[in-house]
Write a structure and sequence with these properties.
The protein is of the alpha/beta class and 481 residues long. The strands form four sheets. Strands 3-2-1-4-16 form a five-stranded parallel sheet, with helices on both faces. A five-stranded parallel sheet has the order 6-14-7-8-9. Helix 3 packs across helix 5 and helix 5 packs across helix 9. The longest helix is centred in the C-terminal third of the chain and has 20 residues. Bound molecules: flavin-adenine dinucleotide (FAD) and iron/sulfur cluster. Iron/sulfur cluster binds next to helix 4 and helix 5.
Length: 481
């Protein structure tokens, strides 16, 4: 513990962000670097708890008090070694994680929690700046071949672990670029893609092979892969979107959130996306249906594209500003949050459901008809009752459906393999991460449902251990979950 009285002397500070006025005019990352001196004060708030609940809160089991202490003492090289011991990609979590560790931090019982995520990001930023991140090349090779299908954080973490364990790893990705949702879901203003690219360079140098435009189960047969590889990891995510089958759904101007985000991300990559295929919010009244993080990403994107107005709709009531009595520490705080995208301008509408999309007479959406709803919780079963007479309309030239995902896509790879699917619609697995098909493993959103990057990395690491054990009889790789 760096400073015994740190938590009494210093209050929690907010991560610095670039000015709203400036940042909405570009696609650069909104977070600004945290100068070292005040950051060390923040790290000194850590109490080095006898039972560090932050460890439990973090799916990766990050050694948080250790690196808080090392940052306070200016021992950055030791800090990155400790951070990399549990996390392949701290820049992804340090930038993007909602930080369940902070929700579980003991200081959060009667004060604001430690700024764990910002300390993590500063450590990895310093490590890149100082050239401390080098390829780790394993000279002894096992001769075993592994196919990883899907290049999101789960597939990448597993691939790096398995390659470092001496196996020959090929990552297959159906898109034209590697990265999964890190590449085409998450907007540039949340994480600049050069952060992803430099990690991919490290993995390439370590010996991981990447094959893009390789849609397994569609243009590459999964049966062929089974013959060519000793083990397969399914890390294809949970990309089947939840639809809103109400009247007017097929009008022009009603799109899935991911289509909007992907096209803008492609433009940010420098791709030539034609005007006819691009989904542009410029000058439009935009309505985002879904109050979650995907919706917030559409919001930041729409504002940067120059939307005339943006409403974000949520069927749930507005959360309380501090923990409710049935949501005590160390549970994840279900509280009202304002993301960087919300700071940039939006009207958030709660307890509302969409009745229909209204036509302008030429097949384009012109308005949304909405109705207020009341949430009912009967024996833990949540339902929403429409409140008669509360119907209202909002102008809408572009509606973006951001209501979550119903699970992995079944046609193609999963159906051809015949893996067992759970009641929740995800790929089933045993305790070693193997599916019902011998030698075929799974990790990330494909087996968990749409979740978080930190879970994807943790599961990728654990599945890598399962695969290593299956191929070699035992494994020294860690399994955080
Ligand atoms: C818009 C959006 C924003 C998000 N923001 C955050 C955030 O800020 N913080 C956070 O923690 N989480 C966030 N998430 C969730 C997070 O991105 C996911 O939980 C995480 O990316 C899951 O990782 P994954 O590796 O399991 O799958 P994915 O990242 O979904 O990657 C799966 C990859 O597999 C590929 N694939 C699928 N099937 C095949 C096939 N048959 N052949 C070849 N390739 C295939 C897909 O093209 C995709 O590239 C966000 C999600 C969305 C949708
Ligand atoms: S729970 Fe909070 S205060 Fe305790 S060790 Fe973890 S980060 Fe430090």
């Amino acid at each position: 513990m760096g400073k015994i009285t740190g938590f009494m002397e210093h209050k929690r500070e907010k991560q610095p962000y670039r000015d709203v006025e400036k940042r909405v005019k570009d696609w650069k990352q909104v977070m600004a670097p945290w100068p070292v001196a005040p950051l060390k004060e923040q790290a000194s708030r850590c109490m080095d708890c006898g039972i560090p609940f932050c460890h439990e809160g973090c799916p990766l089991g990050n050694l948080i008090p250790d690196w808080n202490d090392l940052v306070y003492r200016d021992q950055w090289l030791e800090a990155i070694e400790r951070l990399h011991a549990t996390n392949n990609f701290p820049e992804f979590t340090g930038t993007l994680c909602p930080a369940p560790c902070e929700g579980a931090c003991v200081l959060g019982i009667n004060d604001d929690p430690v700024t764990i995520k910002a300390v993590e990001l500063s450590i990895i930023d310093k490590a890149w700046e100082n050239g401390w991140i080098k390829p780790i090349i394993t000279e002894t090779r096992t001769g075993k071949k592994i196919a990883v299908i899907g290049s999101g954080p789960a597939g990448l973490a597993a691939a790096q672990q398995l390659c470092r364990a001496g196996h020959d790893v090929t990552v297959f990705e159906r898109s034209d670029r590697i990265g999964g949702l890190l590449r085409y879901g998450i907007p540039e203003f949340k994480m600049e893609k050069n952060q992803l690219d430099r990690r991919l360079d490290q993995m390439l140098a370590e010996g991981v092979n990447f094959e893009t435009n390789a849609h397994i189960g569609v243009d590459v047969s999964v049966k062929k892969l089974q013959k060519q590889f000793d083990a397969i990891l399914l890390a294809g995510g949970a990309s089947a979107p939840r639809d809103l089958p109400v009247a007017g759904r097929n009008l022009k101007g009603v799109h899935y959130a991911m289509d909007h985000l992907t096209l803008q991300n492609k433009r940010c990559e420098g791709d030539d996306v034609t005007e006819s295929e691009f989904i542009d919010a410029k000058g439009k009244h935009v309505i985002i249906i879904g109050g979650g993080d995907t919706g917030a990403d559409c919001l930041g994107t729409a504002n940067r594209q120059g939307a005339a107005s943006v409403h974000q709709l949520e069927i749930m009531p507005r959360p309380p500003s501090s923990r409710a009595t049935d949501n005590p520490w160390p549970l994840w705080p279900q509280i009202y949050r304002v993301s960087s995208a919300h700071e940039e301008g939006v009207e958030r509408v709660y307890s509302v459901s969409t009745k229909r999309f209204i036509d302008d007479g030429n097949g384009n959406v012109k308005e949304l008809e909405l109705i207020k709803v009341e949430m009912k919780n009967i024996d833990g079963r949540i339902s929403f009752a429409e409140m008669p007479g509360t119907e209202f309309r909002l102008p809408c030239d572009l509606a973006l459906l951001a209501m979550g995902f119903i699970g992995p896509e079944k046609p193609g790879m999963l159906e051809q393999l015949g893996v067992n699917i759970t009641e929740r619609g995800n790929v089933g697995r045993d305790k070693d991460w193997m599916t019902s098909v011998p030698g075929v493993f799974t990790a990330g959103d494909m087996q968990r449902g749409q979740s978080l990057i930190v879970w994807a990395i943790a599961e990728g690491r654990s599945a890598a251990r399962g695969i290593d054990k299956y191929l070699m009889g035992s494994s020294d790789l860690p399994a955080p979950v």
